[in-house]
Every structure is written in structure tokens, then in C-alpha cells.
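Anyone up for a design puzzle?
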């Protein structure tokens, strides 16, 4: 079968769910299977190899145990330092102080981060409300990539995050102005909410492992219990019309991140009668990210996260707790400290805002270029129009490498200069989230430091799989797109 034919195979109707229109815009009944898109024989062979557990990642079972225990402890420690130690890294003053120091840390957790009734009510309410909205609100139907474990069938994804997110904002505004639920309460209960989020992260991870194994839907298993809980057992978890993996990637973490920033701004206004340019920056930055995830939701089904990554602790805990409670330390710091500590000159503010907006433009258009290129390869030429649609978000007649696998590798747009231009821009944005409070505390820079480590590790994983999947075609691609990250540097 020719590569071009493999990319645009005929639609296969399954229980009336195949729309066969090639535009990715079906209806609410076309949720499960759209069509079968079969790659070449060589492509199938490579996919079989990649869909098997071959080696451990993250240091194997002991490594994932360290991550699962160490990261929650680190989150507590950084939060305590931020709020109770003026943003500085606390430590025992002597050997004799080690035990009292640990007891002081525990007391902060016990008193100020207990999973109280308020935190359970608010966090559970958010989950239930987001699931409810995702279920009932109309959405754009987007076809995903062919899944090898499903016989190369493509799934349909209901993309209604825009409506859900702005409905949530309207709901929050009404609750705030009526006094039913004040926005300032969110930042005031940061520790309590963080603990509940962690409990959800652990609970859902273990529940999904057991239910997936019990129903026989596990894939790519290592045979080691804790490692498989960490990496996940299921690939495409769904409840009715809601794809849980895509839902959790947007609806919980970035909604919380945004509202935490709004809460910080409300707190400042309540205390000082104004909102600082620094806090306004974080509201803008978190809104840009949340809105981008929502307005470009139809691009998510084209990503490696949806196509290959399983739904385990690595993804579940990070989205329930890691992202919303470790990415916005700058907001927590500014909400609990006098604005005089982080006041900048006007040129500094201009530079900060300009850097954010430039990085955002590159990130948004790079993601759009790649995702729409993949859609074009599937014969999808009708795109969703949500705000804002930025210039150069869609490439016309882009250059690419046709692989023996059947896929195409983009070598145009931002992707002609770097193999991961979106990662570079994304990291620059993360750096500005720390720079917004200057040198007051090193803790808000945790996001950018941690993020670059994650991105480098992820690139290694991605490039290794691509080398296996595409062979000599990947070598050709690397000779054309020479730089992994920053053009001319690395």
C-alpha cells in the first residue's frame, strides 16, 4: 500500500459512528470511532515495537517510588517556605534542630494544609461541575490520530472547553459578587486545597489502574505493580462523551491556575485598593494559557499525549495537583507580601509583558502549525475558528518529509528552525512567571527550572521513539532541522 493511500484510507463505519466526511466535524453521536487509517507494512511493524514495554523509564520501580513520595513532600516544603519563611528556603539551624525543624514542618501541614471540609467541597465541586459541563455542552467534533492498539481506528473528541471555561468564569463572577463564594478564599486556602488535590491525584491513579486491569483493557504493561500505576494501564479512558485524559489536561489544572491568579488579584484589591502590574501580569499570563488550551482544544487529539501516553500517576497526579499548585508560586508570594518588595520600573514592566506576548505568539502558532499539518495529512481541511486566530497559525503547502512509515514530518514554519519550537517558547513563558516577582524569592523559579528538566527528558524520549519509528527518514529529518531547541545554539 502506498504511503499516500495509507494516510487517507477510506472511512469505515462502526455502528453508525463513521462520518466519513474527512473534515473532523461530526456530531455528538460520533464519539467512538471515525474511521480506520492504516499505515504501511513497515509502519505497522514499527508501531508494534513501540507498543510494547521494552525498558524502564524514570529510574524504574525505585525511581517512580521516589517521585511519588518525594514530589508531594517537595510541594509542601516549597509552599511552607513561601508563606511562612518569607519566600526563603528554610533549613535546620543545627544538627540538634533537625528533629524540631521536621516537627515545625509537620505542624504547618497539619494546621494549614489539612484536607478540611471547605477544601473537599470546593475541589470536588470544581471536578463535578467541569465534568457536568463537558458532558452536556455542545462542542466541535475532532478526529484524533489512528491508534495502533485499536487497529488504527481514529477516535472522535468532543471539544467544548471554550464554552465550559467561560461558563465557569461567569459562574465564578456571579458567586463572587453575590457573596456566595468569594474569590479571595481560594488563595487563603491554598494549603488545604493542595492536600485534597494530592489525595485525588493518588486516588484516581490507583483506581484507574485497578479498574483497567479488572476490565482487561491494559496496554504496554511492565509487570511491576507500582511502575505500572505510575505510567498507567489505560490509553483511552472515557465516560460517556468525555475523554478523561483530554478533559483533565485542560479543565482542572489550568482552570485552577487561572482562578488562583484571579484570587491573588482580588486579595490585593481587597487589601490595597488596587492590583499591581505584577499580579495583573499573572492574570494575563494564566488567562492566555487557559484560553489557548481551550480555543485550540481540537489540536490536542493530534498530540503524543493523547496518541501514545497512558493515563497513570505521571499524568493524573500532575494535572490534579502538580500543575495548579507548583506553577504559580509567584502568585502565592505576591498575595502574601507587600507590593513594595516587587515593584519595577516602567521599562521593566514593558520588557516583561513584551517577552510574555512574543513567547506566547510563537508557542500558539507553532502548536497550531504542527496540529493543523497533521490534520491536513488526514485529509482534514476545515478548521475551528476560535479567538484569537493568530497570523501564521496555518501553513499553506508546507514542506515535509514523507516517511516509509506513512507519516509526514513537518519541515516548514517554526518547525524548520527547531524540532521543538513550542517547547522553547513555552519555557520562556514559564521563566516570566518567576521573573514577575524579581529576586524576592527563588521559589517562583521552580516552575521554569523543573520545566526545562521535564522538557529535556521528554525530548529524549520523543527523539528516541522517532528514531525507532522512522529510521533513516528521521536521520534525514535531523539533517534538515538541525537544532533540537534554540536555533543556532542547541
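Challenge accepted. My sequence:
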Amino acid at each position: 500500500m502506498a504511503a499516500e493511500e495509507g494516510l487517507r484510507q477510506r472511512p469505515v463505519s462502526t455502528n453508525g459512528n463513521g462520518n466519513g466526511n474527512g473534515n473532523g466535524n461530526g456530531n455528538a453521536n460520533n464519539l467512538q470511532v471515525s474511521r480506520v487509517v492504516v499505515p504501511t507494512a513497515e509502519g505497522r511493524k514499527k508501531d508494534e515495537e513501540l507498543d510494547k514495554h521494552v525498558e524502564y523509564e524514570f529510574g524504574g520501580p525505585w525511581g517512580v517510588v521516589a517521585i511519588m513520595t518525594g514530589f508531594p513532600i517537595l510541594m509542601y516544603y516549597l509552599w511552607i517556605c513561601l508563606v511562612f519563611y518569607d519566600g526563603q528556603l528554610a533549613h535546620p539551624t543545627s544538627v540538634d534542630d533537625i528533629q524540631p525543624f521536621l516537627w515545625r514542618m509537620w505542624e504547618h501541614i497539619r494546621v494549614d494544609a489539612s484536607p478540611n471540609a471547605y477544601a473537599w467541597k470546593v475541589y470536588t465541586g470544581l471536578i463535578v461541575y467541569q465534568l457536568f459541563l463537558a458532558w452536556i455542552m455542545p462542542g466541535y467534533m475532532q478526529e484524533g490520530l489512528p491508534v495502533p492498539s485499536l487497529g488504527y481506528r481514529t477516535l472522535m473528541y468532543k471539544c467544548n472547553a471554550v464554552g465550559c471555561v467561560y461558563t465557569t468564569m461567569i459562574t465564578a463572577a456571579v458567586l463572587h459578587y453575590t457573596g456566595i463564594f468569594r474569590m479571595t478564599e481560594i488563595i487563603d486556602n491554598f494549603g488545604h486545597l493542595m492536600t485534597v488535590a494530592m489525595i485525588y491525584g493518588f486516588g484516581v491513579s490507583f483506581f484507574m489502574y485497578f479498574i483497567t486491569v479488572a476490565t482487561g483493557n491494559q496496554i504496554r504493561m511492565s509487570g511491576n505493580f507500582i511502575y505500572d500505576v505510575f505510567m498507567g494501564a489505560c490509553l483511552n479512558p472515557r465516560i460517556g462523551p468525555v475523554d478523561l485524559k483530554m478533559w483533565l489536561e485542560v479543565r482542572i489544572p489550568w482552570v485552577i491556575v487561572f482562578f488562583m491568579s484571579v484570587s491573588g488579584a482580588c486579595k490585593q484589591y481587597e487589601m490595597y485598593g488596587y492590583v499591581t502590574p505584577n499580579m495583573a501580569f499573572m492574570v494575563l499570563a494564566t488567562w492566555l494559557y487557559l484560553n489557548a488550551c481551550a480555543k485550540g482544544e481540537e489540536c490536542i487529539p493530534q498530540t503524543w499525549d493523547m496518541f501514545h501516553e497512558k493515563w497513570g500517576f505521571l499524568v493524573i497526579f500532575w494535572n490534579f495537583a502538580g500543575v495548579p499548585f507548583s506553577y504559580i508560586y509567584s502568585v502565592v508570594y505576591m498575595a502574601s507580601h507587600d507590593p513594595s518588595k516587587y515593584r519595577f520600573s516602567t521599562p521593566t514592566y514593558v520588557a516583561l509583558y513584551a517577552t510574555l506576548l512574543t513567547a506566547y505568539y510563537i508557542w500558539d502558532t507553532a502548536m497550531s502549525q504542527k496540529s493543523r499539518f497533521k490534520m491536513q495529512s488526514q485529509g482534514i481541511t476545515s478548521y475551528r475558528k476560535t479567538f484569537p486566530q493568530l497570523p501564521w497559525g496555518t501553513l499553506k503547502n508546507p514542506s515535509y518529509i514523507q516517511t516509509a512509515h506513512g507519516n509526514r514530518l513537518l519541515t516548514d514554519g517554526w518547525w524548520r528552525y527547531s524540532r521543538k519550537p513550542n517547547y522553547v517558547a513555552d519555557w520562556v513563558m514559564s521563566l516570566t512567571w518567576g521573573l514577575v516577582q524579581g529576586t524576592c524569592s527563588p521559589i517562583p523559579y521552580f516552575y521554569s527550572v523543573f520545566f526545562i528538566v521535564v522538557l529535556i527528558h521528554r525530548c529524549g524520549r520523543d527523539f528516541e521513539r522517532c528514531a525507532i519509528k522512522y529510521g533513516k527518514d528521521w536521520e534525514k529529518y535531523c539533517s534538515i532541522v538541525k537544532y533540537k531547541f534554540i536555533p543556532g545554539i542547541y
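A detail worth pointing out: The chain is about 55% helix and 5% strand.
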